[in-house]
Amino acid sequence: xxxxxxxxxxxxxxxxxxxxxxxxxxxxxxxxxxxxxxxxxxxxxxxxxxxxxxxxxxxxxxxxxxxxxxxxxxxxxxxxxxxxxxxxxxxxxxxxxxxxxxxxxxxxxxxxxxxxxxxxxxxxxxxxxxxxxxxxxxxxxxxxxxxxxxxxxxxxxxxxxxxxxxxxxxxxxxxxxxxxxxxxxxxxxxxxxxxxxxxxxxxxxxxxxxxxxxxxxxxxxxxxxxxxxxxxxxxxxxxxxxxxxxxxxxxxxxxxxxxxxxxxxxxxxxxxxxxxxxxxxxxxxxxxxxxxxxxxxxxxxxxxxxxxxxxxxxxxxxxxxxxxxxxxxxxxxxxxxxxxxxxxxxxxxxxxxxxxx
Amino acid sequence: xxxxxxxxxxxxxxxxxxxxxxxxxxxxxxxxxxxxxxxxxxxxxxxxxxxxxxxxxxxxxxxxxxxxxxxxxxxxxxxxxxxxxxxxxxxxxxxxxxxxxxxxxxxxxxxxxxxxxxxxxxxxxxxxxxxxxxxxxxxxxxxxxxxxxxxxxxxxxxxxxxxxxxxxxxxxxxxxxxxxxxxxxxxxxxxxxxxxxxxxxxxxxxxxxxxxxxxxxxxxxxxxxxxxxxxxxxxxxxxxxxxxxxxxxxxxxxxxxxxxxxxxxxxxxxxxxxxxxxxxxxxxxxxxxxxxxxxxxxxxxxxxxxxxxxxxxxxxxxxxxxxxxxxxxxxxxxxxxxxxxxxxxxxxxxxxxxxxxxxxxxxxxxxxxxxxxxxxxxxxxxxxxxxxxxxxxxxxxxxxxxxxxxxxxxxxxxxxxxxxxxxxxxxxxxxxxxxxxxxxxxxxxxxxxxxxxxxxxxxxxxxxxxxxxxxxxxxxxxxxxxxxxxxxxxxxxxxxxxxxxxxxxxxxxxxxxxxxxxxxxxxxxxxxxxxxxxxxxxxxxxxxxxxxxxxxxxxxxxxxxxxxxxxxxxxxxxxxxxxxxxxxxxxxxxxxxxxxxxxxxxxxxxxxxxxxxxxxxxxxxxxxxxx
Lengths: 357, 627
Description:
The complex is a heterodimer of chains A (357) and B (627). Chain A has two domains: 4-225, P-loop containing nucleotide triphosphate hydrolases (Rossmann fold); 238-345, CATH 2.40.50.140. Helices cover 25% and strands 35% of the residues of chain A. Chain A has helices at residues 44-52, 94-104, 109-122, 138-150, 168-185, 196-202, 220-225, 230-235, 348-354, and strands at 4-15, 18-29, 33-37, 59-64, 67-68, 79-82, 156-160, 188-193, 205-210, 213-218, 240-248, 251-254, 257-260, 270-276, 281-284, 291-300, 305-311, 314-320, 329-334, 340-343. Chain A starts with a strand and ends with a helix. With 627 residues, chain B is of the alpha/beta class. Chain B has four domains: 54-251, MetI-like (MetI-like fold, Orthogonal Bundle); 262-300; 306-408 and 535-564, D-Maltodextrin-Binding Protein, domain 2, CATH 3.40.190.10; 410-533 and 585-626, Periplasmic binding protein-like II (D-Maltodextrin-Binding Protein, domain 2), CATH 3.40.190. Chain B contains 25 helices and twelve strands. In chain B, helix 13 (318-328) links the parallel strand 1 (306-312) and strand 2 (331-337). In chain B, helix 1 (2-29) packs across helix 11 and helix 2 packs across helix 11. The two termini of chain B are 47 Å apart. Chain A: InterPro entries: AAA+_ATPase, ABC_SmlMolc_Importer, ABC_transporter-like_ATP-bd, ABC_transporter-like_CS, Mo/tungstate-bd_C_term_dom, P-loop_NTPase, PotA-like, PotA_ATP-bd. Chain A: Part of the ABC transporter complex PotABCD involved in spermidine/putrescine import. Responsible for energy coupling to the transport system. Chain A: Residues 6-236 form the ABC transporter domain. Chain A: The complex is composed of two ATP-binding proteins (PotA), two transmembrane proteins (PotB and PotC) and a solute-binding protein (PotD).
């Protein structure tokens, strides 16, 4: 990946007494598919709106392509937005919607015509020029909204939960479509969502946010496998988060039982949080694992069974393709590299991060 | 089954109740006979004579101009206000939309009076401008009310999307937000236009002399007795408002339909857009330009010499005014009032600077005592010599030095009776208490006239302030009440002509007219005495064209002009030179028109008795009427 295209420097924003963003620092590289992920109210949409020019930060700077655009009005910015509810102009045809930005830029008729053709082809909606937005399905409207944005050849496309209003199947199809588009256009996508699956599927980089703070920045794999704190671990996928004691390097005491792990540098006898993904837990016969317990819940989920195992006064969430009926005596085994150690929050700011909305 | 029938009957009754009055009016507008009671066949003549009436056509044009201007301006202001309110934070939005709603709940009369007071306080001359401002004011809340819900439906995101695509805020508003709220803006405009079109109360309070909208014109015409043209006009007004209301209420639906239709068909939307983009603005511009020219030409007239006259309804031959204008080049703005009591506050408030007013005797006394009158310069009125000495002498009862007033008309109050219904000779007020004539008696519906009858009958003064005497009079009136068919003012004339009553208390001037229409009617001044009244010209202190006013008085005192007016009004003239010119001997020497003042005893003019006594009279009169 290449150089920084967008740089947020010390951005803060609050509405009344409610702080939405607190001293946010973030940079976005060219041609990156970056996702802002977090629960609603975490500040991800505000971040996007500050970049789009619809909100002005209370303090801090937004640098775009080396230029300070903090106070530039939205119509002067070289980026385009795809809104959550499409925001198509309902009194205009599809062609007029797509041509809107081009007409303002005083492009020639032929150029506009070609662009409309090209954009409709790109979003697989050939021949829809003269339809009205109302007559299109949600997915089609969303693709028109994307077409309307990309004909302006923005350097960056901002997408504010664009798939939020669509049903599951359509959402999955559109995810692939967006990845394809991004690769064909070769521009930067900044994507806002609260759906972790969407984020994991499409992004080059995920920024996990909560309560106006960035919790973790990383690739999807890193975010999933090595969450830096309990919030990220909890928000991305399902997990067992257990307060534990780091005895020394590579050894952690979980629920009174020492486990081998691969983490180092947390010090000796330090309280930590341990994350163990449910699919990383292996159920064995009693006595053959680290902790013995009994199966208390069982649900069939299709790909796997979801079970709860009561062991050492903790309900372990376990995913397994093998079924253990309720009441079965089992023993829990975890491989050392499947144990993720996280620092306990120390300061108040970090504590706030842990409060779920 | 029964329930269903009952439901239908109920619905039918409600519709009868709602529409019977309007239907009656519409039917009467096509009635070929002048009286309401008879159906004289179908005719359109009232419609054609309506369109030939220049004053009404002027009022119509004024109405349209005011309604349109007020609606356009209110739509612009109201839409902008709605957008601003929409953009506020919740707390402020609630407050402001509440504040803009209050004027709608407010009683119109409160709004009208307060606007008038405001204009007076800031020394704004009442006229076209003040009506326009008033209309804009009361229209704005309606526009906000119809635009606001549309704004709430409109997503802010589409506006932002337009900005995002490079549109400037203004371009984004007109291209994206405005089309979305357009149905609301249009129905707000229609609503405002309709409200303006049929407003009476607020216009009544904020209008100045010479400017009339249809509603105020109809009102002033109706005061003189309802002419069938008014039925025609009211019918047209009703139909217009009905059509507008249908347009307002149907258009959103139509919008939805066309929107549905143009999903696939593109052309129709283009036709609609041409209508919105071209036809409507062109129409508006045309009316603007037309209105501009019209008022510019009117404005030129205003720069000429001017005279603002405030007179009783139907109290001057219109040709007299035309003649005066032709002879002098002075532009006469002519306004009418119905009673002294309506006229008085207009003068005392100073809202309008009338130049010449024609009050009755006791009101002249009151205006003089309240220092509202200017002394007349009689050097400018040489024709005063034509006024009989008797009348100037009588005038001293309210204008002791003959300094403030010039007599215009005079007369007596007496009994008008129908000889076919009354077979005895009548010479006393006592007939009004005769059980024989139960439900055949018409009394005057004004305090002083009503009390004058029993006071004179009892042998007291018309101007009595003695409580015992007044109570006696009150008791007589109360006793008389079951016998009385109606307490009326102008309708005495029409009802007596139409043989609807046997006996009525009436002014002598009306009596002459009724005799011409119905020879069975006879007028008598009762032997106990009665009221002699004089209406005279006075010049208010705040008059701006005093010399023109004096010139007009002089003109009115010219024998030929006084004769014209006498023949038009049929009220006795104090102009002895004019009386000599009357051709018909029966009228020149009529006992009704010109009774020998020395042979009729106990004739008195009313005097202003002061506010306190006025209250006593009013209180007693209310007691009589409420029993």
